[in-house]
């Protein structure tokens, strides 16, 4: 059997293992190991696996993941997410659908200090859903908003998905973060517009909250101060070239602890819970990275990605149509596979193809994150919808998916805009120094 | 057999003791991982602050790398114990009860085999690093061999966790 044939068999075996609910990381490691052993020797495969696991876990550049996750966890346990929601609530709450708009605003702001979509959705479910229920909001709109707002955490920096994409493709994480800012803001604005239009058409869906006094509104602005400080420190520091991404993540985590301690908002118990959640979430990501490294070593010796790239490159089709096909694949696959796992599984295969087609890797990263965002709120495997459903157990999942549908339309519009006008994603990264 | 007899059966008692012992191992490693995260955060902040005063922190990258290795290794059993790994459950959930039980058992056996193998390989890797010339970190020249040993211990504990899950389908050893 030729290495390329073993490669194809390996991909089929991987698919079988994934379908049988084996954790993605373990499936990739097993197939990578067996395939490598078949092509080279079992001894070489065994040493490669142990070395790759060790090197991934102790990689300095990957420490950015636990540190950014810690920053988000501390922010949650110190009540920063609640204060963000309160500020947004005082400013837009009195509008039709105002609480839902406030939720989107708070999600976008929380996304600026938390790198994960599901974590943002979980946090905002706890903060915003009880308020929307209290004001008689339609739960379809309320849950759909929280699930969709949560996806903003994937796009607005710092984003774990961007970090992993950057490491896999050896692109600047700073530039990728910058690429996510404008599409992230655009998505948030479209979400707000979508809520407003819906609530104007059907006012019973999102009744307006009482109008607060101007002094209350002004005082509430203090609620965004911590987030603003952290965001300016972390992203501004990277943008100015003062911090590397790891240093920015460390300073962000340290800064959030300092803010929480100064404000006396963080108990020892909260701190320990934040550490526990950080290690669980980070390991979940890091073990997939380790599995993907092992799997991509196997793919590299089969030369499958390069042969696929050559074959696709020689097809009598324009480059844009192949890129469109690959993006289409991400939209469909994103409905079945977790965004991070999907990127780690497919980047070793598609990235050589896309570079062969001269696609801008930074633009591509932003587009892939955008389309995988769609998968997190669509059936059957919409992670953010499941997170909201897990917290709000009396709301059926189909109601949440139905509620998220208008937001899927918004995400598609943003994706199309970013494809037609790539500058939306590439303008800010062009200015970054690191 | 009555419920009371069943509850006090040797098999039940075995699993209760087994779960308690494995849980305590997992929590001991959680403590190590938590310490590792704090070290990473503190050293990174210290590095940045000291740079403000014109001096760097010599070997900061070395310490952070080692701490990251230990943290991730030690967090592995906890994440496995609370079934925190990403998996595609959609098709699995479509299977009947028997199908799910069989597939779950095969999956767990594969995980035990994988991590059992990794335990041996990580131990061998650590031992190879220990042989002269010892592998050390670039700046501080701290020996690195002990990190793969921690990884070997963690992967061994993962095997124990997966063994518990094999006989208790649908149940986590630790609630997240």
Write the layout of secondary structure elements.
The complex is a heterodimer of chains A (434) and B (176).
Chain A: H1 3-19, H2 24-39, H3 42-57, H4 64-77, H5 80-92, H6 98-111, H7 117-134, H8 139-155, H9 160-169, H10 173-201, H11 214-220, H12 225-239, H13 245-262, H14 268-302, H15 304-314, H16 319-334, H17 339-356, H18 361-375, H19 383-391, H20 397-420, H21 423-426
Chain B: H1 3-7, H2 10-52, H3 60-81, H4 90-93, H5 97-130, H6 146-167
Helix pairs in contact in B: 2-3, 2-6, 3-6, 5-6
Radius of gyration of chain A: 22 Å
What is the chain-wise order of helices and strands of chain B? HHHHHH
Which ranges of chain A are low-confidence, i.e. pLDDT below 50, for 5 or more consecutive residues?
A: none
Helix content of chain A: over 70%
E-strand count of chain B: 0
Number of helices of chain B: 6
Distance between the termini of chain B: 34 Å
Uncertain regions spanning at least 5 consecutive residues of chain B: none
Radius of gyration based on Cα positions of chain B: 21 Å
Structural class of chain A: mainly alpha
- Major sheet attributes of chain A: none
Strand residue content of chain B: under 5%
Biggest interface goes to:
A-B, 58 and 55 residues
């Amino acid at each position: 059997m030729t290495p390329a044939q073993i490669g194809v068999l390996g991909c089929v075996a991987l698919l079988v293992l994934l379908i049988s609910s084996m954790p993605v990381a373990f499936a990739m490691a097993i197939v990578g190991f067996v395939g490598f052993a078949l092509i080279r020797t079992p001894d070489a495969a065994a040493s490669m696996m142990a070395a790759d696991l060790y090197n991934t876990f102790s990689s300095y550049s990957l420490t950015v993941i636990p540190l950014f996750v810690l920053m988000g966890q501390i922010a949650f346990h110190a009540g920063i997410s609640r204060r963000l929601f309160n500020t947004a609530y005082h400013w837009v709450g009195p509008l039709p659908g105002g609480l839902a708009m406030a939720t989107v605003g708070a999600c976008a702001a929380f996304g600026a200090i938390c790198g994960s979509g599901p974590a943002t959705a979980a946090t905002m479910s706890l903060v915003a859903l009880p308020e929307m229920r209290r004001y008689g909001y339609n739960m379809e709109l309320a849950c759909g908003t929280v699930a969709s707002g949560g996806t903003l955490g994937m796009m607005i920096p710092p984003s774990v998905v961007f970090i992993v994409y950057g490491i896999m493709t050896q692109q600047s994480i700073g530039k990728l973060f910058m690429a996510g800012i404008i599409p992230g803001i655009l998505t948030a604005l479209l979400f707000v517009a979508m809520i407003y239009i819906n609530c104007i058409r059907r006012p019973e869906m999102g009744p307006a909250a009482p109008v607060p006094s101007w002094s209350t509104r002004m005082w509430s602005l203090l609620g965004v101060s911590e987030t603003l400080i952290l965001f300016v420190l972390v992203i501004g520091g990277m943008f100015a070239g003062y911090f590397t991404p790891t240093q920015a993540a460390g300073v962000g985590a340290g800064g959030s602890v300092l803010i929480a301690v100064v404000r006396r908002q963080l108990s020892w118990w909260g701190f320990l819970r934040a550490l526990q959640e950080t290690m669980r979430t980070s390991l979940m990501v890091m073990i997939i990275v380790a599995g993907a490294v092992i799997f991509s070593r196997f793919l590299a010796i089969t030369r499958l990605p390069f042969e696929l790239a050559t074959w696709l490159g020689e097809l009598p089709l324009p480059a844009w149509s192949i890129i469109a096909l690959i993006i289409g694949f991400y939209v469909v696959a994103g409905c079945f596979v977790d965004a991070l796992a999907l990127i780690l599984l497919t980047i070793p295969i598609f990235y050589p193809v896309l570079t062969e087609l001269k696609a801008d890797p930074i633009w591509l990263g932003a587009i892939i994150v955008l389309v995988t965002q769609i998968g997190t709120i669509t059936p059957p495997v919409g992670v953010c919808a499941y997170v909201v459903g897990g917290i709000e157990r009396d709301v059926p999942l189909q109601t949440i998916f139905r509620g998220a549908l208008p937001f899927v339309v918004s995400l598609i519009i943003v994706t199309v805009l970013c494809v037609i006008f790539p500058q939306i994603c590439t303008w800010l990264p062009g200015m970054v120094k690191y | 057999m009555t419920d009371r007899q069943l509850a006090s059966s040797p098999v039940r008692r075995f699993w209760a003791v087994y779960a308690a012992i494995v849980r305590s191992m997992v929590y001991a490693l959680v403590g190590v991982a938590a310490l590792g995260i704090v070290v990473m955060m503190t050293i990174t902040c210290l590095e940045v602050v000291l740079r403000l005063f014109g001096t760097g922190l010599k070997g900061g990258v070395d310490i952070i790398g080692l701490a990251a290795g230990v943290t991730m290794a030690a967090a592995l059993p906890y994440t496995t114990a609370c079934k925190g790994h990403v998996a595609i459950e959609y098709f699995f959930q479509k299977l009947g009860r028997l199908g799910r039980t069989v597939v779950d058992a095969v999956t767990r056996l594969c995980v035990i085999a994988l991590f059992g193998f990794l335990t041996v390989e990580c131990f061998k890797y650590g031992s190879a690093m220990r042989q002269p010339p010892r592998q050390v970190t670039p700046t501080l020249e701290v020996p690195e061999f002990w990190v793969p040993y921690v990884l070997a211990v963690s992967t061994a504990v993962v095997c124990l966790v997966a063994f518990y899950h094999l006989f208790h389908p649908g149940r986590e050893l630790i609630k997240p």
